[in-house]
Write a structure and sequence with these properties.
With 307 residues, the protein is α+β, with helices and mostly antiparallel strands. It has 7 helices and 18 strands. The strands form 4 sheets. Strands 1, 2, 3, 4, 7, 10, 11, 12 and 13 form a 9-stranded mixed beta sheet that branches. It has a 5-stranded mixed beta sheet with strand order 14-16-17-18-15. A two-stranded antiparallel ribbon has the order 5-6. Helix 1 packs parallel to helix 5. The radius of gyration is 23 Å and the shape is globular.
């Protein structure tokens, strides 16, 4: 497979860490510049976008929302807030209708505050929370604000105490915390039973592949290329086209591009706080820029090297 800059959307298997996936891709593609767009816990399966080459510089400009489907087991509390941890308490769950349960879920829709699991990667005094947790240290984590754009109750299994949900949320949301907190508001316990990420950073599972697919291609000498061009991952960003060689030269030497003020005032999608995707007439991605406040120029923020 020819190695190009862009994104691979990996369908991660259970038991594999995000870093494991990056290591395997580096080896398979024989390139060092590889990075993932956000950690996916080893026990969580599904969509893991991985950046290749110069695409690693654009990770921060990808859409940040993520969507999961998962199951919550009521009646059990663990030290990790998922089913794989040590059980620290058990309690009967209430008899409740799906309609009433859905009303309780309203508390988790919109902007909410949640306390991350103690085995999360959150920093506490310069150290990861999970490191302190594995040493059985006593510590508290501060609540964090996250946004739940969508929370759908897909199924309620009263007999086994299992809630199946679909959740679309902001980056930094811990579904394990939601599982724990749902148990609490129902006057029982709760932990995450299983979880699958079906979309992340603008990529979804329909475009995902297994690492084994890449291995198979490499062994068979096929010419398929699974890498999504970087520019295709930035469709959500407004575009500005450099129209001549002088502008391109200015851009690639890090100089601001002067523009007519009316151009951006007539196009409401442009905002000095939002990134702009800069391309040439051939649709070649040249980098990311930002408008100055008076909208008279675009200032380079990320410039790709000329090829």
């Amino acid at each position: 497979m020819e190695t190009k800059d862009g994104f691979l959307v990996i369908n991660k298997d259970k038991g594999c860490t995000s870093h494991d996936c990056v290591k395997q891709i580096r080896k398979l593609l024989n390139t060092k510049k590889v990075g993932h767009t956000g950690t996916l816990d080893p026990e969580v399966i599904g969509t893991l976008p991985i950046a290749i080459g110069s695409a690693t510089r654009f990770i921060q400009y990808l859409p940040q929302g993520k969507t999961y489907v998962g199951q919550i087991k009521l009646g059990i509390r663990t030290n990790t807030d998922d089913i794989h941890g040590e059980i620290i308490n058990q309690k009967n769950w209430p008899k409740i209708s799906a309609e009433k349960l859905d009303q309780y879920l309203n508390r988790f829709r919109g902007i909410i505050k949640q306390i991350p699991p103690k085995v999360s990667s959150v920093h506490v005094n310069g150290e990861r929370a999970y490191t302190k947790s594995f040493r059985n240290e006593n510590f508290e984590l501060a609540p964090r604000e996250v946004k739940i754009d969508e929370l759908i109750l897909m199924k309620w299994d009263q007999i086994n105490g299992i809630i199946e949900i679909k959740i679309k949320c902001s980056a930094g949301t811990y579904i394990r915390s939601i599982a724990r907190d749902i148990g609490e508001i129902l006057n029982t316990e709760g932990c995450l039973l299983q979880l699958k990420r079906i979309s992340a950073c603008g990529f979804d599972e329909q475009n995902s592949i297994k690492i084994s697919d890449i291995e198979k291609e490499k062994r068979g000498g096929e010419s398929k290329n699974f890498i999504i061009p970087t520019i295709s991952a930035l469709n959500h960003i407004s575009t500005f086209i450099l129209s001549n060689e002088e502008q391109i030269n200015f851009w690639q030497t890090g100089r601001a591009i002067k523009v007519d003020n009316n151009y951006f005032q007539e196009r409401k999608s442009f905002d000095h706080k939002k990134p702009i995707k800069v391309i040439d007439k051939k649709q070649t991605l040249l980098g990311i820029g930002f408008l100055n406040k008076d909208q008279s120029s675009i200032n380079p923020k990320l410039v790709l090297n000329a090829k």
